[in-house]
Amino acid sequence: MTVRIVRLANFVMPRSGGLRTALRALGEGYLAAGHEPILIVPGERFSDEQTSQGRVITLPGPVVPFTGGYRVLIHRRRLAALLDELAPDRLEVSDRFTLRWTGRWARERGVPSVMVSHESLAGLLTFAGRFGSAWADRLNARTFNSYDRILCTTSWAAAEFRRIGAGNLVQVPLGVDLELFHPGRYTAALRDRYATPSQVLLVHCGRLSSEKRPERSIDALVALRAQGVDAVLVVAGDGPLRAQLQEQARGHAVHFMEFVAERTAVAALLATADVVVAPGPIETFGLAALEALACGTPVVVDAASALPEVVGEAGAAVAEDFAGGVLRVLARPAAERRAAARARAEQFSWPAAVAGFLDVHGTPAVTPSAVPVSAVPAASVPTAVTVS
Fold first, then answer.
1. Closest by CA position to 153, among listed 295, 8, 19
2. Are the C-beta atoms of residues 59 and 42 closer than 8 Å to each other?
3. I need a surface site. Which of 79, 107, 165, 330 has the fewest CB within 10 A?
4. Strands of the 47-51 sheet, one edge to the other
């Protein structure tokens, strides 16, 4: 039976971002499995169109100040009326800040609901000081009481719910496009543009905002060069910290790319790098890091985040010494470290993620061949090893 899955999301950048990638891949998977996905997101103006991920409805939403362009859905009455009109069989919500009220809407109408936790509320509220953790626990308790299921993509992401006794948790990892992100995307001309044959090419790929800690990648480059390592850094991404980071990087071997909208261009950059640095301390999954692994490039990540679960032994997890992590990665033979990266990424596929999400919704594929029955469940993903 075809099921109408209405999905709601805020904080979706119009051209890039991990959430945008995940929403698109899951929507395409739901559609291929024979269901009817409908995505509702905020934007500059109203639109309603059929896309590769199903129907996408954009409602006007204001820009959140100091976020670099993120928009939110704030008109509850209008959104509730639209939900009533769409009459979903399932509700999937990817924002627990401003959309938590939709759990109550679904419960009152007997619609099974799932909240997907794409961010760490406890991590984000650490910026609020010593009271941040208490506020996070209070808000998280309201969230798990509002929805039938809370879906987390890593054990790390689930921890903030587990510690307050949430009993409706499920864990399903996200995936990666293993054809688009592939070692074969290596581009000699791209490498020649940024580095000589003897130089180490580092890449930072991600949003340039405070929670991502992009300044750490520049610090790592400076520390490596101070130790005599002839390295260069390419920063691919945009965000509110761009001008500040450019000032920090002045006089160092750092190149800032213009915004890269084409996914094949991102894949080429990741495949051409020697090491990717992903320094965000509150990442709940880290799609960009997984995409780098799929391209055969090892990743150095923050040990405090969820990324060690994803990267495993295909990179290095460090507390602060990202330069040291890069050196440990480079100490492995190039062929060995690149093969390990690709092998790790192959354990995460979008068909497996789609199958897991549909299982949480209680909606098997209408077209069985669309989602492999051999999809890897979250529990079977190998435990990550943190390199300290």
1. 19
2. yes
3. 165
4. 47-51, 54-60, 36-43, 4-8, 90-93, 113-117, 149-152, 169-171
Given the structure tokens 């609901």, which residue do they identify? 113
Distance, CA of 171 to CA of 166 (rounded, Å): 13
Sheet containing 299-302, strands listed edge to edge, beginning at the edge strand earlier in sequence: 254-256, 231-236, 200-205, 275-278, 299-302, 315-318
> What are the tens digits of pLDDT across the range 114-158?
999 877 554 444 544 554 566 566 776 777 788 999 999 999 989
Asked whether the whole model's pTM tops 0.85, one would answer yes
Detail the DSSP E strand segments found in 274-349. Answer: 275-278, 299-302, 315-318
**127, exposed or middle or buried, with CB in 10 Å at 0-12, 13-18, 19+?**
exposed
CB burial of 289-326 (b: ≥16 within 10 Å; e: otherwise) equals bbbbbbbbbbbbbbbbbbbbbbbbbbbbbbeebbbbbb
State pLDDT tens for residues 27-72. Answer: 999 999 999 999 999 999 999 999 999 999 999 999 887 666 788 9
Beta bridge partners of 232: 201
Cross-strand pairs, 233: 202, 254
What domains are there in the chain, each with its CATH number?
Answer: 4-175+349-380 (3.40.50.2000), 183-345 (3.40.50.2000)
Residue 106: is it exposed, middle or buried by C-beta count within 10 angstroms (0-12/13-18/19+)? buried
Distant-in-sequence, close-in-space partners of 286: CB < 8 Å, separation ≥ 6: 18, 278, 280, 301, 305, 306, 307, 310, 311
